Every structure is written in C-alpha cells, then in structure tokens.
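Hi R.,

As promised on Friday, here is the backbone we talked about, encoded as structure tokens. Could you run it through your design pipeline when you get a chance and send me back a sequence?
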C-alpha cells in the first residue's frame, strides 16, 4: 500500500508542470505570462496576406517549439494550441473558415513519428469553436525537400519552391497555421499553392517569429 502511494506521488511529481517563464506551478505558460507574451504580437504581410505572429524573437518560445517537435514533449501542445486558437478567432470575423497547417516534410514526420503542427492546429480549431473547420488535406506536400533548419534565406526559398499542392477548392476562406516563421518561405509557398486553384487565403497565424 505504501509503495503504491509512493509511486503515485512520484508520478504526480514527475508530471507536474511549471510556467516556463515565471515558474508558477501547474501551468506551462501561466495566464499572466501568456498576456505579457501577446503584447509583442505583430502583423506582417507575405504575398499580400496578413500574418499574425503571436510572439517575437523569444528564445524560450523557440526552444519550447523545438522541444515539442523533436523531443515529443506533449504537454507543450496545449499552450501552443491556445496561442493559435486566439489568432484564428482574431481573423474569423464570426464566419466559418477552413484552417490548414503548413505541411511538414515527409522526412521530419518519419523522424518524429508524428506531425506536431497538425496536432496543434486540430486542437486549436476545437478550442476556437465550431466555425473553425480543420482541413488536413487541403494542402499537401508532394516533393521531397530538406528540413528548413540550418538553411539561409536563399536556400529556404529554393528548398520550398513548388513543393506544395492544393487539389481542393475551398468554399470558405482559408487560414494557414504554422508554429515558427523565419524567412516566410513556407508560408509563401502555402499561399501560392492554395491560390493556384483560386482558394481565398484570409490570413496566416504563427506561434512565433524568429
């Protein structure tokens, strides 16, 4: 009995969450820090489409994204989904919209065993409300490409040239989601592929701009 209680207590301790910014127990990003981070939110434009970056040049957020994607820290998907959900509601104008994430490369999915950005996007749509319809197959990757990490601006643009395809004409405006924007190459290619068959791209929402 004592051993079982001890193991339960140990499991709870190991699973305890702390705010990555202020150390508050039981929060990955506490409400106070969440609000502070959003003060740095900015809108830029890619291919004449507004891109809302919810955090800016924040090393902790960037490290959290890497930990979530490469090391499978599943508890990080909740705060990221909260950020994305907020961005989706900002652009929806109370109408139904389709939501799609920037497709991950086949190699990265194979390496990780999952597709973190699609999981976060789907959760964010559920959190944001019924008018946000997640369309996983609206945008697909059909060419092999390198992982963008470590590539410079020109290399990223070349690496992303014509690698996405959209085979579905959406009946509603589309919002594109990504976790991290560096040069904007992935978003520009996503916009191009969707527009090629006359999809209306309303906006893009990203967790962090690096």
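Update: got your reply. Pasting your designed sequence below so it's all in one thread:
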């Amino acid at each position: 009995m004592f051993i079982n209680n001890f193991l339960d207590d140990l499991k709870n301790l190991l699973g305890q969450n702390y705010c990555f910014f202020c150390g508050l127990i039981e929060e990955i990003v506490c409400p106070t820090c969440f609000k502070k981070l959003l003060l740095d939110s900015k809108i830029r434009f890619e291919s004449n489409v507004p891109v809302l970056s919810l955090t800016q040049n924040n090393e902790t957020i960037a490290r959290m994204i890497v930990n979530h994607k490469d090391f499978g820290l599943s508890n990080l998907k909740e705060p990221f989904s909260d950020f994305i959900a907020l961005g989706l509601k900002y652009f929806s104008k109370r109408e139904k919209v389709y939501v799609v994430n920037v497709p991950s490369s086949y190699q990265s999915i194979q390496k990780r065993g999952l597709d973190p950005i699609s999981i976060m996007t789907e959760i964010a749509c559920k959190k944001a409300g019924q008018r946000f319809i997640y369309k996983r197959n609206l945008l697909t990757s059909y060419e092999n490409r390198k992982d963008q990490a470590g590539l410079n601006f020109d290399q990223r643009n070349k690496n992303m040239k014509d690698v996405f395809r959209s085979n579905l004409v959406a009946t509603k405006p589309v919002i594109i989601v990504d976790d991290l924007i560096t040069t904007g190459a992935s978003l520009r290619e996503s916009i191009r592929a969707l527009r090629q068959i006359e999809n209306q791209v309303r906006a893009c929402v990203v967790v962090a701009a690096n």
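One thing I noticed while checking it: Residues 9-14 have pLDDT under 50 and may be disordered.

Thanks again,
M.
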